[in-house]
């Protein structure tokens, strides 16, 4: 069991509707030491991958991606979810649907920050049905860049997102894959590492 | 001239309407080495302050705050701008107006992550009219916690935000204070460090 899984068992809370609250250490309050352990683990799992940029999506992916970036020595680009008056120039745009917020968002990256020479590691905090991730992959593809790998903190293994992404041949490294959970008992069952 | 000011002169772009674009290194693509230098500088400027938590606001404050937090050895809490279905329980809420997005936002922090024992360093990327910052201060006050200091990357010195905050007696440390800029010539004039 790795440090993220241990932390989820200690401080994660299972809520009705398949909600796993990890807001005390992952996506509202953020434990930077834990993020560094996660960054180290991704660096090990993507050993040998020729990564020159990390791509994430606002808001809760940003902290994890920035700390992880220190282990790869690369800059981070975060995709925006809505058009800002400051985000001018040509943009890559993908439409994604949010499971949590129950609405559609546009995922946007300025074209100047992704090009065909980029070898991208995508980082995000959660993977459930995978719509946000699919949007990020679409954007990397639009830029002619390469997805070298995908690092996720918590994957909901009982939803389809992870399986689809692995079926498509991507190296997806989720540090904690929750295969089952129960809001009544608080039970959380992780997939065993291969 | 510090590393952030140098970088602004090198890569910042002045646009009409008093817009300073720093999206190639600060708030879309993010230079993590630069963030570490900024964190070091804030640690020096807040030497002796008894800080146990960093508070920032989504989205572009998060990366800077997380990297800076490593220099203080404290967790980061980021305020959210809109209500999420995952953000249940009691919340501190402040209403703020965004200069960039020309709309009002609610700034929200779950009550369990701020209490009267917290000595908070507020970190954000930009300070212009200061509405977002005022919202964060209001939230710290609502929690009965203490604002130990405020670290801003880029302050627009020709707008009122910074002056108001200093008038109120807060230790506000902006790493680059732009006192004047011109979109026609590209001129950027920084306030000299005291």
UniProtKB/TrEMBL annotation, chains A, B:
It is found in: Cytoplasm. It comes from the Bacteria. 5-phospho-alpha-D-ribose 1-diphosphate binds at residues 128-132. Keywords: Cytoplasm, Glycosyltransferase, Purine salvage, Transferase. Its EC number is 2.4.2.22. GO terms for biological process: purine ribonucleoside salvage; xanthine metabolic process; XMP salvage. Xanthine binds at residues 20, 27, 156. It is an enzyme of class 2 (transferase). Residues 43-154 form the Phosphoribosyltransferase domain. Pathway: Purine metabolism; XMP biosynthesis via salvage pathway; XMP from xanthine: step 1/1. SUPFAM superfamilies: PRTase-like (SSF53271). Converts the preformed base xanthine, a product of nucleic acid breakdown, to xanthosine 5'-monophosphate (XMP), so it can be reused for RNA or DNA synthesis. Belongs to the purine/pyrimidine phosphoribosyltransferase family. Xpt subfamily. This is Xanthine phosphoribosyltransferase.
């Amino acid at each position: 069991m790795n440090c993220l899984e241990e932390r989820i068992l200690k401080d994660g809370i299972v809520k009705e509707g398949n909600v796993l609250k990890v807001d005390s250490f992952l996506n509202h309050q953020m434990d930077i030491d834990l993020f560094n352990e996660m960054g180290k683990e991704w660096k090990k799992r993507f050993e040998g991958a020729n990564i020159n940029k990390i791509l994430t999506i606002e808001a809760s992916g940003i902290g994890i991606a920035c700390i992880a970036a220190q282990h790869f020595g690369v800059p981070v680009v975060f995709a925006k979810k809505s058009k800002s008056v400051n985000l001018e120039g040509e943009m890559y745009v993908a439409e994604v649907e949010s499971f949590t917020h129950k609405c559609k968002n546009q995922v946007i990256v300025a074209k100047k920050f992704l090009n065909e020479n980029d070898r991208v590691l995508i980082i995000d905090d959660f993977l459930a049905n995978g719509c946000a991730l699919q949007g990020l992959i679409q954007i990397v593809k639009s830029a002619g860049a390469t997805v070298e790998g995908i690092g996720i903190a918590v994957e909901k293994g009982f939803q389809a997102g992870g399986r689809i992404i692995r079926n498509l041949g991507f190296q997806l490294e989720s540090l904690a894959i929750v295969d089952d959970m129960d809001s009544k008992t608080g039970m959380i069952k992780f997939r065993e590492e291969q």
